[in-house]
Amino acid sequence: MQFSKEQQLRMYENLVYARVFGEKVIEYIMGGRLYGSVHPTLGQEAISAGILAADEFSSCEIYKQGTHRQQPLVAKIIGEGPFLAEIMNKSDGILHGCSGEFHLVSLKDKLLPMSGILGSAPLSSTGFAWTLKQDKRKDTIALACFGDGAMSEGSVYEAMNFASILKLPILYVLENNQVAMTTPACEEAPITDLAVRAVSAGMQGVTIDGNDIEAVVEALLVGIEKAAKNEPNLVELKTWRWQGHHVGEKQETYRDTSFLKNLDAIDPVKRFEKKLLERGFADEAQFKKLYAKQDGFLSAAFEKASELEAPDRETVLNYNAMYSNNAGASL
């Protein structure tokens, strides 16, 4: 698939946005201005950036469900302001600062429910895809993201099996970053490519280099087109998680971190910069200018969110925001 110069530069802009976003999250965590078990995105930028580009390049309407390691994607979907306010536990957050990054949802923005429970989000997205089919929505799909750890959950396989039987308009995106929390992939599964599990569920499964932004976008566009024809399918994107499961964790206690000595070989930003230079589509000065632009934009957004007010007691303890009714409940 050939992408135009403009499309390639757009992909690069998304990559840089994702990189700077990840760096800012770490900066605010280490500076004591962002709290909780926040998951760093460094090294996996081509996935968030690729989904954003595929959504932009596709003519389909796509309801997306991200993961806890796709903050740049979710921020673009619902807006940096509401997202940053949410993960900083501010009242201006999309859910008034009560959900953090784990349980976000905004159907008006086409963001499907996320969840901190391993393997549960693909199930709700599959149910949403079933609704789309029953409503006879044309060229509209659900895009469900999850990791290699969730791929080992039986419920995820059951959801894919269900989607295959009913021919639902859904694309499963498997973000395989080589380690499920603290369990290396080689200790988690006896197979190299997890996409074959989709084949066993009766749908197409492909494995792609998740650090190659062009390969990611191409695979996603093909997958989106299939899903729009009620052909559920899965795209496995292999990448590398550079840091621990959450910011500050010592990952060297459970995984071989020798790969960190040669990051340029797997860095999705550096790899695409090399291609753009070879094609004459950009130069080093443009790279620096774009980085500075994104850094300035996101620095302002993070700073603004950090200065907002926290939610009041009534908002935090509003059980109607968590339960379907208040029968027998009191706080």
Q: What would your notes on this structure say?
A:
By secondary structure, the chain is of the alpha/beta class. The protein has a single domain (5-307), classed as Rossmann fold. It is 44% helix and 11% strand. The chain is built from twelve helices and seven strands. The protein has helices at 5-30, 45-57, 71-78, 80-87, 121-134, 154-166, 185-188, 196-200, 213-228, 268-279, 284-306, 313-316, and strands at 61-65, 140-147, 170-176, 179-180, 183-184, 204-209, 233-238. The strands form two sheets. The chain has a five-stranded parallel β-sheet, with helices on both faces. Strands 4-5 form a two-stranded antiparallel ribbon. It is globular and about 50 Å long.
State the main characteristics.
alpha/beta, globular, Rossmann fold, two-stranded antiparallel sheet, 5-stranded parallel β-sheet, 331 residues
Describe the structure concisely for a colleague.
The chain has twelve helices and seven strands. With 331 residues, the chain is α/β, with parallel strands linked by helices.
Distance between the termini: 57 Å
Query: Under the CATH scheme, which class?
Result: Alpha Beta
Derived structural class: alpha/beta
Order of helices and strands: HHEHHHEHEEEHHEHEHHH
List the helices and strands and how they pair.
Elements: H1 5-30, H2 45-57, E1 61-65, H3 71-78, H4 80-87, H5 121-134, E2 140-147, H6 154-166, E3 170-176, E4 179-180, E5 183-184, H7 185-188, H8 196-200, E6 204-209, H9 213-228, E7 233-238, H10 268-279, H11 284-306, H12 313-316
Helix pairs in contact: 1-2, 1-10, 1-11, 2-3, 2-9, 3-4, 4-11, 5-6
